[in-house]
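Fold this complex.
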Amino acid sequence: MEFNNLSTENFGGMHVLDEKGEPVQLSSLWLKRTAVMVFVRHFG
Amino acid sequence: MFCRQQVAELAQNEDRFEKKDADLVVIGSGDPVHFKEFREKTGYGGLLFTDPSLASFGAFGFSKGLMGFMSITSLSKAASALKQGHRQGSIQGSTLQLGGAIVVDSSDTVRYFFAGRKAGDHPDVDDLLKALDK
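Structure:
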């Protein structure tokens, strides 16, 4: 995927789960300040 | 072993992200029930989420497949990770899924993007920090 093709409109609405299993919208992560999101393969 | 090594390195640099007024967020793909153990093993105390559906991984094009899982280079990196004491723990999440990173600021601008092409590919911590200077 090209960097230039990335738009928060395409992925901001997606959800991840917090430690209680509750969904959190990705865009909420950078609402107040910059978010450095690192996706790891698994919790190994 | 890769993930634990990677997150342990991030954990050691958590304060550098804080100094640049950014939130470091780690997103895995296992069950949230393993968060506690993961934190204990990596020393990571920051924001932690998971996406067992892998939908977000897919949206970012983080590749998935056997070709990406192991390669000569990643085997060499595995040896290096073991030397540093990062053994493969019980695996939680998709072993075939590769990772990556994305930095987004509060004006919805994507500042940095990295997609791993094989096991052991990590975004460089210094590159992540540099993205905060732009």
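Chain B touches chain A through 67 residues (CB under 8 Å).
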